[in-house]
Amino acid sequence: MLNKIWGGFFFVAFAVGLGRWVLRGEHEVWAAMVKAAFDMAETGFEISIGLTGVMCLWLGVMRLGEKGGAVDLLTRAFGPLLRRLFPGIPEGHPAMGAMVMNMAANMLGLDNAATPLGLKAMKELQSLNPNPDTASDDQILFLVVNTSAVTLIPTTIFVYRAQLGAADPTDVFIPLLIATFCSTLIGLLAVSAFQKIRLRDPVVVAYLGGMTAVVGGLVVYFSRLEREVMEMQASVLSNFIIFSVIISFLGLAARRGQPIYETFVEGAKEGFQVAIGIIPYLVAMLVAIGVFRASGSLDFLLDAVRWGVERLGIDARWVDGLPTAVMRPLSGSGARGLMLETMEAHGPDSFAGRLVSTIQGSTETTFYVLAVYFGSVGIRRTRHAVTCGLAADVAGVVAAILVCYLFFA
């Protein structure tokens, strides 16, 4: 899929450029596309190198959280809820522990730890599956929750915004938290509708009701404030929460007797490798998207959608985030490239820049996760997994648009 998407950017750009040259005599389009290719290659490299310091910081902090027991605390906190959502898993089965650890790692932004834990969980769930080539109910629910999982610390979004010069890289924290919660909630409700999961259980109601009340309370509170006051308070709250998490991770690690400096450095080393490792992927995608925009293809597409939206009397600023929203379920690197290209074109503190940041963090890459997780255990029949996963994606995008209008319009 990614090969087709990446190649498609170039082939469509060439066709549109050829049309502009032949039909309109706009010969300068070729120079623009070549310049865009070189400029975006340089930009991709600079972004990747610039990510190194901040990535080292955050992965160092995350390693403190991992060693300090933050993941264990989340495991104990959400265990009662998951035991009711996954009734097919016997008490004490290793699948439950792997699932909870995977979800906790996702919440903390520990992507490198979350993937192997997720694959282990899927393997353990497969051992309970009576039809090995068909996804079980528990496997589908796990996958949908995984692809729409609430991320408490969206590290990479903050890193990219900081690298591109955002005045306050974390100002999207509250909007992003609201959007990703909506994605997870709709994903859970969609699966429940297919699988007849009993959501009226008192424990389930308490967990979901409590989380919904917190998110709803944030929306109600901030919606009543003046624009400048709202932005100031949201920024203060976001940064206070994030710094409190850092202090908590440090405190927990120190309490367990962990060598906090060495532990931080261990995670920071991994951050350096991650930042360097993404250079070729980021350069490849940014060059393709840059050429696509320079040819006029992306502008033609967005202008057509914007024209239709405006004819309906609807504010059309959200249209600039549409390419990232469409790409997000298909390709993580593709969506990341579009997010960065949008922030480069409009600025990280523009409405479009904040919107694509929120969209990028609201859901996971559904088709990639489905292919990797189900493919790892040989499942061919996915049943309603795609439908429910895409429902969560759509909910996350719609929530991201609405909440960005609330906070940043």
Describe the structure.
This protein has 409 residues and is mostly helical. The protein has one domain. It has 18 helices and no strands. Helix 2 crosses helix 7 and helix 15 runs antiparallel to helix 16. 45% of the residues are buried.
Query: What is the count of β-strands?
Result: 0
The largest sheet is: none
- What amount of the residues lies in strands? under 5%
Overall geometry: globular
Measured as a percent range, the helix fraction is: over 70%
Number of domains: 1
Overall mean pLDDT: 84
**Tally the helices: what do you get?**
18
The helix-and-strand class reads: mainly alpha
Q: What's the quick description here?
A:
The chain is mostly helical. About 80% of the residues lie in helices and about 0% in strands.
Give a quick set of tags describing it.
409 residues; mainly alpha
Layout of secondary structure:
Blueprint: H1 2-24, H2 28-68, H3 70-85, H4 94-107, H5 111-126, H6 137-147, H7 155-163, H8 173-195, H9 202-223, H10 227-255, H11 260-277, H12 279-294, H13 297-311, H14 322-327, H15 332-346, H16 351-362, H17 366-375, H18 385-408
